[in-house]
Structures are given as C-alpha cells and as structure tokens.
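Recap from last week: sequence in, structure out.
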Amino acid sequence: MFSRFENLRKFKRSRQIMVVLVKYGLDYFIDRSKINLLTKIKKNPKNYQALTLPERLRLALEELGPTFIKFGQILSTRPDFLPPTFIKELAKLQDQVPPFDSSEMQKVIKQEFNKSIDELFKKFEKKPVAAASLSQVYKAVTVNGEIVAVKIQRPNIKEIVKLDLEILEDLAGILENRLHNGWVYHPKLMIREFKNAIRKELDFTNEAHNFEKFRINFKEIDYVRVPKIYWDITTTKVLTMEFINGIKINETTQEEYKNIFRPKQVAERGAEVILKQILEDGFFHADPHPANLFVLPPATIVMLDVGMVGYLDKKTIISGAKLLQAIIDKNLDQAMRCFENLGIAVKEFDRNLLCQDLKELLNRYLGVSLKNLEINKVSQDILEVMARHNLVLPANLVLMLKALSVVETTGRQLYPDFDMLSAAKPFVKKLLRKRFAPQELLKKSGIIFQESVELIEQLPQDLIDILRKVKEGKLKFNFEHRGLEKLILEIDRASNRLSFSMIIGALIIGSSFVIQANIGPFIFSYPAIGIIGYLFASFLGLFLIISILRSGRWK
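Predicted structure tokens:
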C-alpha cells in the first residue's frame, strides 16, 4: 500500500514516463485522456517518424533509466515475448548510465560490512572499470594481495525498481486490454517474468552461488575459467570475485590479436561449453552474449555476469536431445513427438492445426545441409508458430533456445564455417547412449522396484480406507467441468422459454374458459377479462418470438 508521499512519487514518475512515450510516439498504446491528464504538454514535432517502432522503443527505454534498460535487456533474451525486429533492436541496449559517486560506493560498503574500504582492501581503485544499470564494478586488491573485481549495487536501486515495476504493471494492464484481440504476445506475462529475473539479479548472493555451481561443473575442463568468489567480502549488495583480465569473445578476430588467439578453436569451445551446460548439467548461462564471455590466450573461455541462468530437468534435457537428433536426421515424426514431450503441443482444441504448421516448418529444412541449418533460424521460426497459436513456451526452454542461438551467432562471427549442429552431435549421442548404459538401467530398475514395493505396501491400507468411507457414506467424488458454460447457458435459456410458453398457453386456455362462462361480476364481464388475458398472452408470445429470432436459434 502506497503512502501519500509514495503516491506523489508514483504520480511524478508516471508523468515522466508518459512524457517520454509521447516524445517517441509510443502514446497510441494508451488512453489519450490519461496521458493529457498526467503530462499536460503539447504534442512534440514528430522527429521520431524517420525511426522504426523498435528503434523508438529502444531509445525510450534508454532515456527512462536503469529499470527500463534492464527490462529491455531481459526482453531481448525472450524472443517468445516480442517479434524478431524488436528483439534485434533491444539487443543493442547498452547500460548508458553515468557512474555514481565514489562516496556513495563507500557508504554501501560501510553499511554492508560495518567496515571502511581501507579495512577490507589493501588497494581500491576509485574509478569503476564498468558501470551498468544496476551496479558498477571496481578493481581492488585484498589484504592478502589477491586482485579482485568488486561489484557494488547502485544506491537506492531497489526502491527505484519497485516504483517503476508498479508503473510497468499498470501500463501492461492497459496495453493488454487495448490490444487483446489482435496481439499474440502477453504484456502482463512479460512484467511477471521481468519481476522474477530482476529480483534475483538484485540479490548478488544468487549470482555468487551461480558462479560456484559453474566452477564445480567445469572443474575438470582446463579451457574454462570461472572466477573464484570471496564469500567473506560478499553480501546481497556487494559481490567480490577473482579479477580476470581477458578480452570479449567477439574481439578475438581483430588484427591486433591475429597471432595471439585462435578464433576457430574459441568458437568450437564456446559451443562445447554451452552444450555441456544444457545437455549434461541442466544448468546454463542464459545470456552468453560477447560481453559476458571473455577469452584468455590462446582459447580459454572465461564466464562472467551469470546473474541470469536457466534450469532444465532430466526429462526436458532428454526430449531436447531427441529433438536435436530428429532435426539432424530430418525425422518429422520423431520431431513432432519431441514437441509434445516438451510441453509445446498441449492445447487440444488447436492441436491438429498446430501440428500441421510445425510439420510444414520442419519440411522447409528437409533439403538443407547441416552446415547451412542454423539453430537461430529454426528456433525463431518455431517461436513464430507458437506465437501465432497464442502459446507461451516454458521460460527455461526459451532461454535454452536463445542461449544456443547467441553462441551459434558468435561462433559464426569467429569462424564462418562453424556448424552448431555438428558440434551438438557428440553430446546428443553420448546422452542418448547413456540412458541405456547398464548402470543407468540398473539405477532405474532399483527406483521402479522401490516404488512398486511401496505401492504394494500401501495398497491394502488405501483399499481399507476407501471401503470404510463407502460403508460410512463419506465417499465423495468431485467433478470439474470444462467448457460447459455455454451448454449450461443454453439449457437455462431453453428452460426459461419453455416456462414462458407454458405460461402463455395457460393464459390462453384460462381466458377461453372465462369467455365461455359468459357472466360478469361487478363491473367487468368474464368475456372482457378473457380478452385481456388473450391480449397479455399475445404480448408475451410476441416477446418470445422476438427473443428467439434475435438468438438465431430458429434456423
């Protein structure tokens, strides 16, 4: 519940947001009367008309500050939420936020550790090496002489994000109501996913745990470096990790690094890293764009900024591997079964049409060689089909497709002949072969045997409980009807019309008896009363006929 002061802040921030929307011509999404009430500004010259709608959206988000920049960045990882042109433009979003003052940084550290910088570090560079929308990073040296990177959260960013999220939720509700009939994407769902993602990113201990998980998963692979976490200098607002001085993965092809790095090997290893995460570990970097992957000479991959990750259960991993194998083998029937197992083709009312569209999509790639078959293009086409059928894929499945697409795109920049599907083959075969290894079968048999024994042990008692309830008359069945609302409504209408008809018939018969009597009490004669009954019955009958004609049920 907002206090009076918070309501005033919300009003001022809403006004600022509306002004920016008007400036970039994005106000047609929202009720003009509300915009005029909030902004009270004159329409600006339409300088934005030379820009595309996605470009205007990106510029507006950049101008609105940290929360909206982060919102755009997270949306750029979700091609199921927006059309491809928007995703491509939002991927250009940069954290163009000026660094906050070093005195503010020192206050954050003091609040978190109740110690000064000089007590925690031997040396601390006051100028940040990177400034982002939610935090900025400093280089420092611990008291033990180890070089570290210290990531510090922006002051009051949680309060800023909370206020902006309230306004974003309001805007999403308005947008969904206005565009409900023709818009296949889901504004409210976008905001819900954003809230979940940014909540995790605002707690730096989540990212620290992610780093530790990746360190464990890659401890046997010498060409992958994951920064070490310094837990004694890490809190929800401060993250201290090993400082690794590499270069961005997409810079390895520059002329100055020609004899230092091996771009082809970097591309192949980058693919192996993401495929291992997805197909073996079920825990993967959800945003592996070039700024988050550094390289050390000649081809060592360094993982950075792991605030956004994805999880896959064993069933999804196996179904995903089978789908990749089906695409490699051009096996349409197997691919369709995989789509269903992944929870994609689940809506019964449009299942046939959806399956038909997916088969047509896969048929396009039947004659395409693996070398020319891009996961990026296939996943984009799949997501477009899903959007057309108004389906929303599981979030982690979309993140998986996006991660594979980003690594594939980067790989082809480094090495034009890079083939992601060929790189995936060994992982897919290994995973599918492992399922039928003796130790795996033995393990599954043990689980099935244990569950069967538990079922047999519990079955007699369950049957006794059921029979006791039957005997005592306490056994109840709960039925849930789905899609029967229209049938119930039609039955209700039919019964009402039948009752109406019976009343009309009774009036006609009663009036006829009254007329036949041909005597009259007091002022009115029976024939007069009968005629009144006929007239009332005629009026009701006419009303019933009109209602039937309007409903169209007479045909």
